[in-house]
Write a structure and sequence with these properties.
The chain has 104 residues and is mainly α. The protein is built from four helices and no strands.
Amino acid sequence: MEPMTEGTRMSDTGRLAKARDELRRVRERIDQHPLNDPAFLEARSVIAEHQESEREVVAAELARRNLPSLGSQSRALVLGLTSLARLNRKRIRLEEQIAKLESA
């Protein structure tokens, strides 16, 4: 391993700043992801509350609250789960990278 020099420290500082900035952007994208939409989160909560209920009861409660239907939630999950998982993996990698740079 090469000895720590002033240039190396500056480089680590730059990498740390870049990683922190990228982490901020990734977290914003996670927050804005369609699966994290407040209506979608509330709809999932309704489904959890009515776990023992018939499908029609759940569908009626979602409609009463003007929340996404079971079908639209299923479609959103199929279409959005991969991108949300990818963003979360990227977030974890960046958090690990930042921790490593901060401890150096």
